[in-house]
């Protein structure tokens, strides 16, 4: 009868313990739930798939991210202390349970029941309060850590040159900035609290079991190394499985992001099925990765359960014999079994921490890969800041440039000078390097050869922010954010007043259509300004450039996508924008170019192979031998 009672009690205690862990999910969700939340991005071509980030050690992860817990450590310490106090209450409650069994249940003296019963109730309330407080402050520390880490990684990402983004999939980057950052928190933030509280709980529960019967406790503790061995065996596999899951998660995010962003194209071309298939393909990859993880978790649980059951059977068998010999009371055995009922889940939890750490390490690899990326263009230590408004004199001196990873140069021996206020039209066939010229002027890249000067100063000697303050670029596609018309225009210069916004809109020829919108300047423009027409978007972009009021202007195909009538209408505000500014107008459509503007024509550079072939052709035509 006693063993049956013991099992019953243990079952209840374990459920209570699990329930407590489930509440902690807010701070440190169990593996399976985190896995399902991480489902997020998509890859396209297999060749296009991002590769697994390089592995780094846990120590390096701590070295990198532990300083981020500064200012939050008090919260984590409070969370640890409160969780430990809750564990102490549990130890005391079990002692009371043993006491009630021996002094009330076996002796049938009801009067001895009330005092320990009330004390037990009080302990339960205190344990509940401690447990809540611990979970709350740990969650607060964890969320604050996440907030600052995300800010840090995002700020770093924004220092990286455009080629970083051109070579990566947006969905994958988004997954790194969200899910992977969360995994790091579970390693160095709330993860640390969990480790400490679990270790202390193990010590307490084991200590209490030793206190009752040290010899019996020694026998059962002999199985602890087996628990740890099992989790060690699983940890390495979990890490690879988690890395794969993250990879497919990022790939799935990318497909969703690309497909939704290009929905009008998808629907106009009737490619919904293709897109669904793409997502399905990536979803299957994600499913396989998750099933791998599920297999590991599924195997891990039962293996630990078997070990735990072996211990219990041994305890109850030896305990029954000890009771029969009169060396142990029933209350003592039940309390002993109850301590073990708490001890084993705590030891199991320690093992799971190893698995969580493996998974978190996979996420931190991916975040550190971003943090390790360095911008290809930097400010020199001696870089100057422009203190007064630039005159806007631009010079390209014998500039040559090859894109990273390309063999053929895009620009070679390019020289040009634009005087302050002058308009230079840059034209040439597609791929000739017109937009590249603008990227070099903004220092998205530095030339490999020659130099670019602003007012006689090499732009590499200026800070990037002050250089870019002096330049306004109007892109081929007007890039708007999803705020209101007013916010989009004011984006040109932080602190611009509403009057300045309206003035710029009037000059840009946008005021009339803006006031006709349902909420005037407060009308939301929709995702990327999709609720406006192409011409309207372009005029808002012109107003934004006017508000910015920089001395140098780069117009990159400003008429692209506009019909003849709209283009003519946009040209007028553009002329007003160009007035008094050094302007480089990049276009292959010379119809709307103001008369008298100086024009330079860029020609695509041919590859050496094509040059050799052309020479060979010429020699053959001239009758020369090969
Ligand atoms: N990020 C990049 N990485 C590698 N190569 C690039 C990159 N951007 C452009 N190129 C290459 O550089 C060449 C010039 O591109 P660029 O965009 O400057 O041409 P463009 O004259 O502006 O063309 P278009 O008139 O079609 O816009 C092209 O061959 C293009 O493939």
UniProtKB/TrEMBL annotation:
<dbReference type="InterPro" id="IPR039421">
    <property type="entry name" value="Type_1_exporter"/>
</dbReference>
<comment type="similarity">
    <text>Belongs to the ABC transporter superfamily. Siderophore-Fe(3+) uptake transporter (SIUT) (TC 3.A.1.21) family.</text>
</comment>
<feature type="domain" description="ABC transmembrane type-1">
    <location>
        <begin position="77"/>
        <end position="359"/>
    </location>
</feature>
<dbReference type="InterPro" id="IPR017871">
    <property type="entry name" value="ABC_transporter-like_CS"/>
</dbReference>
<keyword id="KW-1003">Cell membrane</keyword>
<keyword id="KW-0472">Membrane</keyword>
<dbReference type="GO" id="GO:0015421">
    <property type="term" value="F:ABC-type oligopeptide transporter activity"/>
</dbReference>
<dbReference type="InterPro" id="IPR011527">
    <property type="entry name" value="ABC1_TM_dom"/>
</dbReference>
<keyword id="KW-0812">Transmembrane</keyword>
<dbReference type="InterPro" id="IPR036640">
    <property type="entry name" value="ABC1_TM_sf"/>
</dbReference>
<dbReference type="InterPro" id="IPR027417">
    <property type="entry name" value="P-loop_NTPase"/>
</dbReference>
<dbReference type="Pfam" id="PF00664">
    <property type="entry name" value="ABC_membrane"/>
</dbReference>
<dbReference type="GO" id="GO:0005886">
    <property type="term" value="C:plasma membrane"/>
</dbReference>
<feature type="transmembrane region" description="Helical">
    <location>
        <begin position="218"/>
        <end position="236"/>
    </location>
</feature>
<feature type="transmembrane region" description="Helical">
    <location>
        <begin position="75"/>
        <end position="97"/>
    </location>
</feature>
<dbReference type="GO" id="GO:0005524">
    <property type="term" value="F:ATP binding"/>
</dbReference>
<dbReference type="InterPro" id="IPR003593">
    <property type="entry name" value="AAA+_ATPase"/>
</dbReference>
<protein>
    <submittedName>
        <fullName>ABC transporter ATP-binding protein</fullName>
    </submittedName>
</protein>
<keyword id="KW-0813">Transport</keyword>
<keyword id="KW-0067">ATP-binding</keyword>
<keyword id="KW-1133">Transmembrane helix</keyword>
<feature type="transmembrane region" description="Helical">
    <location>
        <begin position="195"/>
        <end position="212"/>
    </location>
</feature>
<feature type="transmembrane region" description="Helical">
    <location>
        <begin position="298"/>
        <end position="321"/>
    </location>
</feature>
<keyword id="KW-0547">Nucleotide-binding</keyword>
<feature type="transmembrane region" description="Helical">
    <location>
        <begin position="327"/>
        <end position="347"/>
    </location>
</feature>
<feature type="transmembrane region" description="Helical">
    <location>
        <begin position="117"/>
        <end position="142"/>
    </location>
</feature>
<dbReference type="GO" id="GO:0016887">
    <property type="term" value="F:ATP hydrolysis activity"/>
</dbReference>
<dbReference type="InterPro" id="IPR003439">
    <property type="entry name" value="ABC_transporter-like_ATP-bd"/>
</dbReference>
<dbReference type="Pfam" id="PF00005">
    <property type="entry name" value="ABC_tran"/>
</dbReference>
<keyword id="KW-0997">Cell inner membrane</keyword>
<feature type="domain" description="ABC transporter">
    <location>
        <begin position="394"/>
        <end position="626"/>
    </location>
</feature>
């Amino acid at each position: 009868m006693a063993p049956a009672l013991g099992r019953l009690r243990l079952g209840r205690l374990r459920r209570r313990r699990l329930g407590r862990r489930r509440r902690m999910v807010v701070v440190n969700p169990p593996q399976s739930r985190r896995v399902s939340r991480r489902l997020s991005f998509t890859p396209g071509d297999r060749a296009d798939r991002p590769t697994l980030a390089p592995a780094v050690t846990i120590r390096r992860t701590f070295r990198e991210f532990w300083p981020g817990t500064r200012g939050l450590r008090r919260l984590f310490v409070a969370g640890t202390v409160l969780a430990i106090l809750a564990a102490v209450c549990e130890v005391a409650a079990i002692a009371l349970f043993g006491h009630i069994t021996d002094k009330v249940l076996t002796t049938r003296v009801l009067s001895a029941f009330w005092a320990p019963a009330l004390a037990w109730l009080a302990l339960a309330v205190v344990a509940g309060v401690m447990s809540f407080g611990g979970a709350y402050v740990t969650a607060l520390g964890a969320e604050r850590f996440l907030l600052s880490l995300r800010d840090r990684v995002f700020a770093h990402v924004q220092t990286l040159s455009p080629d970083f983004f051109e070579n990566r999939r947006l969905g994958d980057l988004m997954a790194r900035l969200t899910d992977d950052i969360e995994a790091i928190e579970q390693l160095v933030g709330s993860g640390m609290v969990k480790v400490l509280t679990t270790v202390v709980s193990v010590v307490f529960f084991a200590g209490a079991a030793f206190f009752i019967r040290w010899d019996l406790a020694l026998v059962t503790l002999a199985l602890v190394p087996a628990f740890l061995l099992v989790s060690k065996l699983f940890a390495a596999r979990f890490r690879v499985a988690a890395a794969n899951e993250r990879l497919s998660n990022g790939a799935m995010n990318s497909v969703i992001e690309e497909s939704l962003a290009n929905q009008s194209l998808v629907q106009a071309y009737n490619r919904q099925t293709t897109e669904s298939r793409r997502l399905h393909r990536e979803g299957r990859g994600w499913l396989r990765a998750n099933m791998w993880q599920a297999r590991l978790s599924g195997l891990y649980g039962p293996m630990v359960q078997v070990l735990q059951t072996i211990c219990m059977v041994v305890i109850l068998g030896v305990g029954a014999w000890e009771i029969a010999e009169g060396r142990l009371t029933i209350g003592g055995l039940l309390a002993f079994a109850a301590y073990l009922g708490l001890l084993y889940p705590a030891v199991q939890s320690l093992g799971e921490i190893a698995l969580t750490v493996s998974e978190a390490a996979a996420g931190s690899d991916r975040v550190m890969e971003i943090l390790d990326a360095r911008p290809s263009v930097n400010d020199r230590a001696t870089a100057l800041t422009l203190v007064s408004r630039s005159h806007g004199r631009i010079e390209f001196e014998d500039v040559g440039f090859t894109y990273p990873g390309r063999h053929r140069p895009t620009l070679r021996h390019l020289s040009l000078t634009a005087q302050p206020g002058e308009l230079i039209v840059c034209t040439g066939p597609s791929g000739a390097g017109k937009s590249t010229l603008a990227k070099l002027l903004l220092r998205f890249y530095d030339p490999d050869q020659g130099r670019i000067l602003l007012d006689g100063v090499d732009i590499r000697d200026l800070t990037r922010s002050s250089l870019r303050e002096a330049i306004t670029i109007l892109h081929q596609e007007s890039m708007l954010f999803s705020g209101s018309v007013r916010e989009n225009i004011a984006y040109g210069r932080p602190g611009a007043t509403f009057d300045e916004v309206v003035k710029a809109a009037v000059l840009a020829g946008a005021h009339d259509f803006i006031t006709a919108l349902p909420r005037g300047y407060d009308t939301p423009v929709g995702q990327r300004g999709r609720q406006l027409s192409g011409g309207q978007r372009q005029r808002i972009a012109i107003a934004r450039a006017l508000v910015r009021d920089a001395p140098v202007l780069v117009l990159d195909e400003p008429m692209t996508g506009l019909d003849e009538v709209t283009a003519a209408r946009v040209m007028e505000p553009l002329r007003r924008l160009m007035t008094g500014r050094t302007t480089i107008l990049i276009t292959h459509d010379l119809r709307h170019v103001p008369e008298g503007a100086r024009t330079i024509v860029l020609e695509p550079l041919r590859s050496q192979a094509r040059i050799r072939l052309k020479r060979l052709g010429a020699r053959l035509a001239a009758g020369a031998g090969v």
